[in-house]
């Protein structure tokens, strides 16, 4: 089931983040050693690492901007598979399910397109829809229940539907988009701040290299 909840774009993004994290650790180590011991070679590597990270971040931003519709479709597919296979008793999916329960609780939404997405869940189908996802609940008595399924208190003849559930009917897709738009300024500010810090690091590394070069030149004995 976990393989159904992946996509090439998200896998590539994960690999990029892992690579950037490893490069950042290496960069910090090289920068410290180069600055303390005044080694031009290490400072040059430090500059190169910062440049690579900056280019990677800009490239990732451009990919997200120009491929946003494709990414949106892939996220929709992942969430729909997650909802369809949601099972509170499966530990191998616990982390993903907990994340989705958190999203539904915080945004006060249900499903990706709407609460009707949960009608595709295999467990709920077997239970004739007489249970519903607790994290979708709009009832005050279920606010303390973070995950799993809750029993439908109102008696239903035969099979129930999502319309019988005490849940939020709005899907999380609109809520996630609204959150991103509301926090776009903060996100851009953080990205800009990180880019400025990286540029300052590049400038400082160049300055240190020049100073070391000047000191080496003055130490050369005149003939």
Overview of this protein structure:
The chain is built from seven helices and two strands, in the order αααααββαα. Helix 1 (8-37) packs antiparallel against helix 2 and helix 2 packs antiparallel against helix 7 (184-219). By secondary structure, it is an all-alpha fold. The chain is elongated and about 90 Å long. Strands 1-2 form a two-stranded antiparallel sheet. Mean pLDDT is 78; it is low at 1-6. The chain has helices at residues 8-37, 40-66, 68-84, 94-107, 122-126, 172-182, 184-219; strands spanning 131-133, 149-151. The chain has one domain (8-192): Cd81 Antigen, Extracellular Domain, Chain: A (Orthogonal Bundle).
Which features characterize this protein?
223 residues; mainly alpha; Cd81 Antigen, Extracellular Domain, Chain: A; two-stranded antiparallel sheet; 7 helices; 2 strands; elongated; disordered N terminus
Helix/strand layout:
Blueprint: H1 8-37, H2 40-66, H3 68-84, H4 94-107, H5 122-126, E1 131-133, E2 149-151, H6 172-182, H7 184-219
Helix pairs in contact: 1-2, 2-7
Quickly describe the structure.
It contains seven helices and two strands; from the N terminus they run αααααββαα.
Q: Residue share in helices?
A: 55-70%
CATH topology grouping:
Cd81 Antigen, Extracellular Domain, Chain: A
How would the global form be characterised? elongated
- Rg, rounded, reads 26 Å
Q: Output the strand order for the largest sheet.
A: 1-2
Strand content: under 5%
> Considering the protein shown, what is the CATH homologous superfamily?
Tetraspanin
Overall pLDDT level = 78
Given the helix and strand composition, which structural class is it?
Answer: mainly alpha
Continuous helix count: 7
Order of helices and strands: HHHHHEEHH
- What is the CATH-assigned architecture? Orthogonal Bundle
């Amino acid at each position: 089931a976990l393989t159904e909840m992946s996509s090439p774009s998200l896998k590539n993004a994960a690999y990029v983040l892992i690579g950037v994290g490893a490069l950042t650790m290496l960069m910090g180590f090289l920068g410290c050693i180069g600055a303390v011991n005044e080694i031009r070679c290490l400072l040059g590597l430090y500059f190169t690492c910062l440049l690579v990270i900056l280019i990677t971040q800009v490239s990732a931003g451009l990919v997200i901007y120009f491929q946003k519709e494709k990414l949106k479709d892939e996220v929709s597919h992942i969430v729909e598979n997650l909802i369809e296979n949601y099972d509170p008793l499966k530990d191998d999916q616990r982390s993903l399910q907990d994340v989705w329960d958190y999203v539904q609780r915080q945004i006060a939404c249900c499903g990706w397109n709407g609460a009707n997405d949960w009608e595709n869940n295999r467990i709920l189908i077997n239970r004739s829809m007489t249970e519903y996802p607790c994290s979708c609940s709009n009832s005050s008595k279920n606010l303390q229940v973070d995950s799993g399924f809750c029993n439908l208190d109102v008696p239903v003849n035969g099979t129930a539907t999502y319309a019988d559930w005490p849940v939020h009917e709005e899907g999380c897709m609109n809520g996630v988009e609204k959150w991103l738009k509301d926090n776009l300024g903060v996100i851009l500010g953080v990205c800009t701040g990180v880019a400025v810090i990286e540029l300052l690091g590049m400038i400082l590394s160049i300055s240190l290299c020049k100073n070391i070069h000047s000191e080496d030149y003055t130490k050369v004995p005149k003939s």
